[in-house]
Design goal:
The complex is a heterodimer of chains A (323) and B (280). By secondary structure, chain A is mainly α. Chain A has helices at residues 2-7, 19-58, 78-109, 112-127, 130-156, 176-199, 204-212, 217-228, 230-246, 249-254, 272-279, 287-322; strands at residues 68-69, 74-75. Chain A contains 12 helices and 2 strands, in the order H-H-E-E-H-H-H-H-H-H-H-H-H-H. Chain B has 280 residues and is mainly alpha-helical. Helices cover 76% and strands 0% of the residues of chain B. Chain B is flat, with a radius of gyration of 24 Å. Chain B contains 11 helices and no strands. Classes of the chains: A mainly alpha (323), B mainly alpha (280). Chain B: It comes from Jiella mangrovi. Chain B: Its main location: membrane.
């Protein structure tokens, strides 16, 4: 298959467009592909250069300092890092089971004529821009959290000794929990559509054999299908995690932008991306701006690692499916 | 024995109902979001939205400057991102299909596809805003085009790979050079797929806010000048929604409705194109 293509690396000089034109086109396409590489390297270098003054001033202490004080010019990344991780964790705890549930529903329970429309509707949810989730979160969801959900949580979960400190304090409406829930709504469709896609790659022989053994629908999904596509599921989930970690606008509206590490997940906090979005244009040049870019650099490194791992796992799955 | 089977059946019923509930929850969220958008957005959704510029607090006005700014940046970003993306996708699918470098670029492209857009904003800030000394529509355009490229690269490569190798071989066998084969044969059979990629990337960038925050910034006045801060729909929504003024908040909702309609129509159109191709 590849022989003819590789053998004719630059074709024959005849007809319209000869070897030269082909060489030029080859070079141009290569240049365009190299731009992709250059962008990544450019992002890395430019962020590192911008972050350098802050990283040099604060050293490794930058990552373990909670204080974020533009007046005394003391900056630390711990509070935004904490907020980013906690909101993403809340989002994943909810979105993974719900997303998998939707995928199983779409491949198993859903009546056939409804599969396509429901699948499309769920994917439309993924297409809604994050600023829409933000404005909706601020004006509709946060008041709902403040008046209904949070008082209920405070009076029930907040009263349990041992974990009560997590659900403590006045109901602000905005905060870490609200942000985590909005993030969950945003990533559920990603998880659901990746999971549905990989479920469909499971050979029907496996499924039929399992049913033939007398397994119930749930048992087939839990013990046969999910284990069969495990690595792709983990990959898809990490892809969603990458999105949650870097999501900006939806979180910026509802996080509260408070640079501290609250013990309660009902309290306002901040995330890396929300801190950058909220403060960057107002930041004075110098160490303040540099600290924000340093936050961006940290976010870039974290998401790059997560997304790379996700890609590797999805690739493994593709290879397996290709065999 | 009997009770064990009963328990398994019970677990099955419970779990399968839970999956149905998960789907219902997803649809419910979609319905609530779209419902609120429509109710809150429609009240100030009229002609003045398109004919008047962003007003001061408690004054009548529209979103004309923001809409024009967004259209300008989106169009120019596509004009930059599309050729780069199609050419890079061509390299990955044709000339460099088997090279080691291609697999690295492919990998990086997939990472860039889901990289946080605010990082792109910071990069362009460092690249263009700091060096040129001011915020500008051009900077916003470059930021958006960086988001376009990975989407176009991925869809182009995928669709070019669907073109059967026999077509390539037939072209080469009659003595046509490779680039003519690509231009005349491969591109024309892959056109629908590339158009889908264009629609998808338009849908993606028309709602992007984070990369514009500190590149194009914003502008309260109507402007064609890309070399100065330029208003855009997402940034205007962001600023107006967080303001304390009723009329600004109402405009933010109207803008949000406008963007959502645009994005959803683009995604649905892209989907229709793909299904038509699959059926054919």
């Amino acid at each position: 298959m590849s022989l003819a293509i590789e053998g004719n690396r630059h074709g024959r000089a005849s007809g319209s467009g000869g070897i030269d034109a082909d060489r030029i086109f080859h070079g141009v396409t290569f240049g365009a592909a190299a731009i992709v590489l250059a962008v990544l390297i450019g992002v890395f270098i430019s962020l590192l250069v911008g972050a350098w003054p802050a990283l040099r001033t604060f050293g490794l202490g930058f990552f373990v300092t909670e204080s974020w004080n533009p007046v005394t010019e003391k900056f630390g990344a711990l509070a935004p890092l904490y907020g980013t991780l906690v909101t993403s964790l809340i989002a994943m705890l909810i979105a993974v089971p719900v997303g998998l549930g939707i995928a199983i529903f779409l491949t198993e329970t859903c009546p056939r004529p409804l599969r396509r429309p429901i699948g499309i509707a769920i994917e439309l949810l993924a297409g809604i821009p994050s600023i829409i989730y933000g404005i909706w979160g601020l004006f509709v969801f946060a008041p709902f959290m403040q008046t209904v959900v949070q008082p209920a949580i405070i009076s029930t979960l907040g009263a349990i000794p041992g974990i009560g400190f997590l659900f403590f304090g006045p109901p602000y409406g905005i905060g870490l929990l609200t942000s985590g829930l909005i993030l969950a709504m945003m990533i559920v469709p990603f998880i659901a559509s990746t999971a549905r896609e990989v479920f469909l790659t499971v050979p029907s022989v496996l499924r039929e054999a399992a049913f033939g053994m007398g397994m119930t629908r749930w048992e087939v999904n839990r013990s046969i299908i999910i284990p069969y596509v495990r690595s792709a599921l983990v990959g898809g989930t990490m892809l969603a995690l990458g999105r949650a970690l870097g999501e900006t606008m939806a979180v910026t509206f509802v996080i509260g932008n408070a640079h501290r590490i609250p013990s309660s997940i009902l309290s306002p906090g901040t995330t890396i991306s929300a801190a950058i979005a909220n403060e960057f244009t107002e930041a004075t040049a110098g160490i303040y701006t540099s600290s924000l870019i340093a936050l961006g650099f940290v976010l870039f490194v974290i998401t790059f690692a997560v997304l790379s791992a996700a890609q590797l796992m999805l690739r493994q799955m593709k290879k397996k499916a290709g065999e | 024995m009997e009770s064990k089977l009963a328990r398994r059946k019970l677990v099955n019923t419970v779990m399968m109902s839970l999956t149905t509930m998960a789907a219902a929850l997803g649809l419910l969220v979609l319905a609530i979001i779209l419902g609120y958008l429509f109710i809150r957005g429609i009240s100030s959704f009229d002609l003045s939205l398109f004919t008047q510029d962003t007003p001061g607090p408690q004054e009548p006005g529209g979103l004309r400057n923001a809409i024009v700014g967004s259209l300008m940046m989106t169009a120019l970003a596509m004009a930059i991102g599309l050729p780069v993306g199609v050419l890079a996708g061509t390299y990955l699918a044709e000339y460099g299909r088997f090279s080691k470098l291609s697999s690295i670029i492919r990998f990086i492209n997939d990472v860039l596809l889901s990289a946080p857009s605010i990082i792109v904003g910071l990069f362009v800030y460092q690249l263009l805003v700091v060096t040129l000394g001011h915020f500008s529509g051009y900077a916003g355009t470059v930021a958006l085009s960086i988001l376009v490229v990975p989407i176009i690269v991925r869809t182009t490569e995928d669709v070019l790979r669907l073109v059967p190798d026999q077509l390539r071989e037939a072209g080469l066998a009659v003595g046509v050079s490779r680039w003519m084969v690509i231009r005349k044969v491969i591109y024309s059979s892959a056109r629908a797929g590339i158009i889908t990629g264009i629609l998808l990337s338009l849908a993606r960038i028309s709602g992007e806010t984070a990369p514009l925050l500190f590149t194009s910034l914003s502008n309260n006045f109507f402007s064609w000048n890309l070399n100065a801060p330029l208003a855009s729909l997402p940034i205007t929504i962001f600023q107006f929604a967080l303001s304390p003024y009723d009329n600004w908040q109402a405009l933010a909702w109207a803008g949000a409705l406008l963007i959502t309609i645009a994005v959803l129509s683009l995604s649905i159109l892209a989907r229709l194109l793909t299904t038509k191709k699959e059926r054919a």
